[in-house]
Amino acid sequence: MSNSSSNKLGIKFEEPKKPNSFLKIFLLHFKGNGIALVALFVLISIIFISFAAPLFAPYDPAKSDIMQRLKPPTLSPSSKGGFPHILGTDQQGRDVLSRLIYGGRVSMGVAFTVVLIAGIIGIAIGIISGYYGGWVDLFLMRLVDISSSFPGLLIALTFVMVLGPSQRNLTFALLFVGWMIHARMARSQVLTIRETVMVEACRTIGCSKPRIFIVHIFPNILSPLITTYVLEMAHMIGAEANMSFLGYGIQPPASSWGLMIGDGRQYITVAWWLVVFPGITIAISVLCLSLIGNWVKDEFDPMKLDRKH
Amino acid sequence: MKRYIILRLLYTLVVIFGVSILVFIVTHVIGNPVNTMLPLQATDAERMALTHKLGLDKPILIQLLDFLKSVIRLDFGNSWWQQIPALGIVLKRIPATLILVLLAFALAITLALPIGIIAAYKPGTFIDRFLTNSSLVGICFPPFWIALMLILLFSVRLGWFYTSGYGTLKHTILPVVTLAFVPTGHLIQIIRSSMSEQLNSQYITTARAKGVKETVILLGHALKNAATSIVTMFGFDLGRYLAGEAAAVEVVFGWPGIGMLIVDTIGKQDFPLLQAEVFTVAFVICFINLITDISYGFFDPTIRY
């Protein structure tokens, strides 16, 4: 009777098998959505390779070699017998693959920093706004409405015009644009949680406000906020690329995927590889993030009752 | 209805004022225009003279009041870069953006409607997954990259279209196609999800039981009820694109629209021109939002203003 038992009516039923290892539980979440698992794997690889750039990059991304300029992608070893320039070289003879790996560090780094800080600020404002309601809420949400009905690009460009283009100022500008969606999301979630018996009970037994916010409300609104985080990360990679492409984001000698496209633009007729590869890298990262975001939304939605486990 | 529109127009004024003040704060409190206008080796006397000329030596609140007065009079002063009234420069760029964006959105909705409806009608099938996944892939590429790829293929290799410029059909096709990518993807997704939500509801089952034709069910019943969410997404994207979100694409194609003007303004550090642009953009977005809101009444008779 290890795996089955019977109730009063004598009907036998199988007890659901509990997944016994962490890996199995992990894989169960991807049932019927194998593409999200692939996306997660690809994304983790991109992040790992970008952040451990010196380990993976075959060349120094800033070292130019004028004899090797604008060489197309090849599998044969370079002239000095080194690793082949499999993605070609740019107008200064720098290895495109190495620049792509180091550029990923900047692109991913900026997007991650922006979403992390914007998320913290936005969620805090959203929770406060949703919990207190009244004038605080009205004021904060009008502010959010006004600034989010506005193209983020224009606000970010204004910031960069005033502060001067640099990676720090770009992060600052994108932060200014990026916090609002988190605030709106957190607020709408809090509005539903606020009226629950749980929060009522906490208030009755005299929990302090910060305790209610952090211990009781926050964990309950986590899954939609994670979805927002992941999808915003995709959005910010695009925004960074856009700003850098226009020349108001990352400044040389540093590089990012968007800046590589911007730099390669004038050589596009003779060296398509300068533009094609960074664009595909951006698209793959954004696609993986979107797939993972949609997966989190579907899988951890508390309203979804047909859960498999 | 009339009352609603008047309230909305008042709200629009509040938004425009709010955004103008925001830009004023960013440009005047955080930054100093004099530093950006003069070369580094300028003497103190030169700095003082320019500060006085621009009225920047007055208290900040007086400056703000002066600025708000000028917003009301729709006079943003002369552009520092071109030395002619700033608002005129901005208004002159509107037709180019309008042509580009309207054509792109017409293309987007023509493509997205049949694709989204087919995907919603056959949920879970190969064709549904193919269409929805490719719409997701389509919005992942940066638009300026798509622009460069299309130029490479159709202008450089095949020589069908011009690489950049403005005026003829040969100039127009590539920018329009490029710009249509993202809205098409967004629209397919929203049409699919809102249509399948409608197709799963009871009135559709009733209609089917009565023997209503499938085309009438799809286009007459489901699509009409799904229209509010589709229009919301359409209006949101349209507003942003008219407001210069497509700047990078305009820059790549050398299209003399408002997006390219914004990028130039940032390069020239032209504050009056920037303020005129912000004002115009806020106005355009509020106008599109108003139209979107009013249009809800046509699709959903339960909505009363």
Q: Can you tell me the residue ranges of chain B where pLDDT is under 50 for at least 5 consecutive residues?
A: none
Assign a percent range to the helix content of chain A: 55-70%
Number of self-contained structural domains of chain A: 1
Q: Could you tell me the mean pLDDT of chain B?
A: 84
What ranges of chain A have pLDDT less than 50 throughout 5 or more consecutive residues? 305-309
Shape of chain A: flat
> Which H/E pattern describes the elements of chain B?
HHHHHHHHHHHHH
Report the β-strand fraction of chain B as a percent range: under 5%
Examine the coordinates and then state which fold CATH places here, giving the name of the CATH topology of chain A. MetI-like fold
Per the principal axes of the C-alpha atoms, what is the gross shape of chain B? globular
Largest sheet of chain A: 2 strands, antiparallel
Largest interface: A-B, 42 and 45 residues
- Biggest pleated-sheet summary of chain B: none
Give me the secondary-structure category of chain A: mainly alpha
CATH architectural label of chain A:
Orthogonal Bundle
Task: Give the N-terminus to C-terminus distance of chain B in angstroms.
Answer: 5 Å
> Can you give the helix content of chain B as a percent range?
over 70%
Discrete helix count of chain A: 12
N→C terminal distance of chain A: 22 Å
